[in-house]
Each structure stands twice: as C-alpha cells, then as structure tokens.
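Materials and Methods. Structural model of Transmembrane protein. The 676-residue sequence of Transmembrane protein from Mycolicibacterium chitae was retrieved and submitted for structure prediction as follows.
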Amino acid sequence: MRLARSLHVLLVVLLAALVTAPTVTAEPPFRLPAQVTDRVGALTSSELTQVERAVDRLYDDRRIKLWVVYVESFDGLGWMTWAQNTMRASDFGDDDALLAVATVDRSMAFQVPSTVSGGSSTRTDDIRRYDIEPALRNDDWAGAAIAAADGLNANAAPSSGGQVSLAPVLAVLAVIGLLVLGLWVWSRRRRARRHAAEVEAAKRVDPTDPAALAKVPLEALDELSQTIVVDVDNAVRTSEGELELAIEEFGPAKTEPFRKAVDDAKAALQQAFTTRQILDDAIPETPLQRRELLTRVIVSAAKADRGLEEQSNAFQQLRDLLINAPSRLDALTQQMVALTARVEPATQRMAGLREQFSPTALESVGDNVDTARERLTYAERTISEGRSLLSRPAPDQNPLIDAIRGAENALGQAKTLLDAVDTAAGDISRAINDLPAEIEDIQAGIDAATTHLRQPTTPKADELAKLRDAAVQAVEDAKTNGAKDPLGTYTRLNKADAELDAILAVIAEKQQEAQKQAKLLEQALFTAQSRVRSVSDFVDTRRGSIGPEARTRLAEATRQLEAAEAKKTSNVAEAIAHANGAAALAAQAQQLANNDVSYARQAYGSQYGGRGGGSDLGSVIGGIIIGNVLRGGFGGSWGGGYGGSWGGGGRPGRPTSYGGASRSSTRSYRGGGGRF
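The predicted structure was written out as tokens:
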C-alpha cells in the first residue's frame, strides 16, 4: 500500500515537471520588423537601448543598416539557410547586414555584403571571430550586437554619407602629411645618393663605346652628356689658342696634325650640341629615343676629346724636343758610340754563323751587320746637322726636330739589327729543333677548327674559318721553307698558332656557357612543367570549388610554358625567363586554389558531412555532384539562383556568399556563422 502511494506521488511530480518545463520555440525565417528584433527577451530595456544606439551610430557614420535578431532556434534549417531566407524575406539591399542569434540552439549567422566589407573577407571574419563569438559564448547578447556594429563602423568600406568629425580626420591627415613629407625627404636623399653613385660609375665607362653606355641608367647618362660637352668645349677653346702659338713657332706643315684634330673636334662638338638641343627643346622624346640621342652626344664628344688628347701629347713631345734638344743630342751621340763598338764583334760572330749554318738558314740576318753600319752613318750625320741648328732662332729650328727623330729611329734600328746577330745562333737552333713540334701543335688546332666548322651552331664561324685557313697556309710554308728560313718560318707559324688558339678558346668558352644555359633551361622547364601539371590536376579534381583567379593564373602559366618550349632552340635566355615565369604563376595559382578549397570546406561543411567533410562535400568540391545544384541545390533553400557556381567551377566568394557566385545576383556576402 505504501509502495503504491509512493509511486503515485512520483508520477504526479513527473507530470507536473513535464507540464511546466520550458519549450524551445522554433522560429522560421520571417520579415524583420525593426533593426533590433528580440523574440526571446534576450535584452533588458537598457541593453536594448545600447544596441539600438550602436546600430544608429553605424548608420549615421557609414550609412550601413545592421539588422539584429534574437530567436531561440533556426527552425532546423541551419544558420546559413535561415539567414539567407530571412534576408530575402526582408528585402535586404547593398547596405544591409544581418546578425542573427539563436540563443537556445547556440548558433549564429553574421552576413555582411561585399559592398560594405570592401571586398575583403578578412576584416569581416575578424569581427565575427574575435568580437561577436567571444561575447556570445559568455551569453553577452547585447555585447555581441554592439561589437558587430562597432566593428563594421571601424572596418567597413568608407561611405559617402554620414557626419564625420573633422578634428580626428585633420589629425590623421596631419600625421599622414608628416609621414609623407619625411618619406619624400628620405627618398629624395636616397635617390640623390644613388644618382651620384651612378654618375661616378658612368664616368668610369669608356665614353666612346655605345655598348658600355647602354648599361648606364638614363638619368646618369643625361648628366654625363652635359658634363662631357662642357669639358670638351673647354678643351677645344684651349686647343685653338695653343694651335695659333704652335703655327707661329713650328709653321703650318709641322702643326698640320694638330690643326686637323682641332677641326675634327669642333665638328664633333657641334654635332653634340645640335643633338643636345633636340633633347632640350619642348618636344618630348621616348626613353628609347632619349637614350639614343644621349649616347650619340657622349660618343661624339668623347671621340673629339680623345683626338685632341692624342695630338696634345704629340704636341707636347714636339715642344719637349726643342726645349731639351742639346741634352737629347748628347744622349744620341753616346748611343751611337756604343753601337759602333758592337759592329766589329758582330762581324766576327756573323762569320762564325756562316761556318755553322747554311746561307738559307741565315737569310733573315745575313746582311744585318752591313745594314747596321748604314743606320749608324745616317745617325752620325743627322746628329751633326742637329748640333749646327742649335744656334739658330726658334722659328728656324724646325729641322732640328726632324734631325733628332731621324737619329733616334736610325739608332733604334741599328740596335735591333745587331741584337739579332747576337741571338741568331741560339734562335736558329731553337727554331730548327722546335719546328716539328710547332707544326704538330698547330695541326691539332686546325683539326679542332675543322670539327667546329662542321657544326651549324658554332659561334664566330667566319672568323674561325679565316684563321684556320691562315694556319693551314703557315704549315705549308713551314714544310716548304723551314730549312731555308727557320727563324722567319717559326715566327709566322707561331703567330698563326697563337691566333687560332685564341679563337678556339673563345669558342670553347661560349659553348661551355651555352651548355650551362641549356642545363638551366632544362631545370627551369622541368620545374615549370611539374608545377603546371600538379596545379592543373589539383584544379581538375576540385573544380567545384575553385574560382576564376586561380584558373586565370594557371592559364597564364600554361601560356608562359608554351612560350618557353617555343623559344628553347632560338633564344635560350628568353625560354628560361618564360619557364621561370610559368613556375611562379603556377605557384600563385596553387595558393589561390588552396584558399578557394579552404573557403568551400568552411562555408558548406555543415550541409555536407560536418566540419570534417564527407563524401557529399568532397563530391561537391570535386564538381561531381552537379545535378542537384543545377536544379536549385542544397535542399531547395537557395531557390534557383545558385545555378552552377559550385558544380560548374564557380567560386563561393569568400567563406560564405549569399547565393554563392549566383548568376541571378551580383551581391555577395562575407562573414560566416555556426555554433558558439
């Protein structure tokens, strides 16, 4: 009996609890009546006022309407579907954003149009992740709404409406102005230092070499041209004055080379000034035209200056001959005496050579002693004539210069002739002994040159053929005349061998460089092909989630790769550049594609297999499930506007988009939602 009574009491209590237990009221999507709608009493009256003020402040400052709604449940539709249907029912426009909170389901949706977020999902995601969700987790319903409004007010794209306080704006502008001014001063000084360094480097370049000038920056080239025309103009003016004095002192005949150099310099300088005038007139030139004109100015002026410098040195030597004529004549006399003393020993040595070698072997030195005597006799006579001219007035001393130069040349030749006799025995013996080895060495070079010339890609082929033929001729001459004139033959053979070796070395270096470039191209092509292929496979297997940016980069990478393939035989350097460009673009495409897939998983994981994904989500991302999408997609909650944006490879904007990349609407939404 007592047990039955106890069971009866327990049953009554349970029934009372069931009757009095709270029920969760599901709220289907509805048209929002006001910007702040509280269906569950989540806000106190003071909190409601605070939220409304934050919402009003956002509208006043940015002309953005944030709609806040609190319900108990999203009616089992999921946060995204409930939010989108509510926005659709509420006729949301380009400046309307939504914060929907299901307090019992503990789920939320935060949707911000791209026209408000400035096209960036990062800022909107940060507001949701770092401002809204922490407040909701602490049941701070009012704080979440205020954080959403204030976050949009601080981060939204600027609006043309609203009242903006001028004081903060002016302060910010002042700070920006100071920063800009400081940056301008710093960059100006930096440019000035860089320009000065470039000008100094330009001054070390050969100004007569257009190829060297092509590497000089345009501004430095301009300053160099202005400096050089001034310098050369000064040099021409100075040279004209010196020329007048030289004509009076030495006469027109002796100064003819100087006069011609001054005339040539004046003509080149006039051409440079004419070109500078073209640069300085009001008609602008393209950078390429300006560089060509500046190069013309510098080359013309530099060649004029070089001609003046060469003749200036000769002119100085002419004047030195007159000033130092007595001491020069004394020195020449001493040289003549010393060389005369060598004649008799050379005669005896020559007699010994004739006993040792055949006349043909001595052909190159056979008359050296007699010729040396003739040069010494001429030198003695001209030195005597020079001494007789020392007492004449300066204008009549011009023949003295010829006498000194004639004696110098004669004594130099006499010394060379006697030196050859002294070294003839050793030189002839060495030439006879080394000739076979030299012929063998040059023949190896001839064979190598012939092998190179059979190859169509050999660089400097014309020059190589010319030097190869000269070497062949030298070998034939050595075989015919080696015994008659071993010294002369050996000298000619050695010269031909050296020239052929030099061109072969250049060709070997160029071929080595070509091989290096070919290896670099092979590596670049392999890298580009691998990256383009892997990214293409990635896009193909995830086509349902990858948008146009990644595909555009991939298409350009493919084009660059095709260009590299087309150029690999005609221009290796350009082919390498195209291949490297293809690899870089493929890397960018991969990053963009990774982002798109990540956004898709985040946005639609809840509808297709949860956060971890599932077979349906993978099929959507891979573009396999397309029929349902094309018929309205995702349980019909999207209407007909979602179209083929996922199934056909469209991009969902950023983490979420209102209607995806819908063909029926150009408005996309940023933000997100989910449990908190």
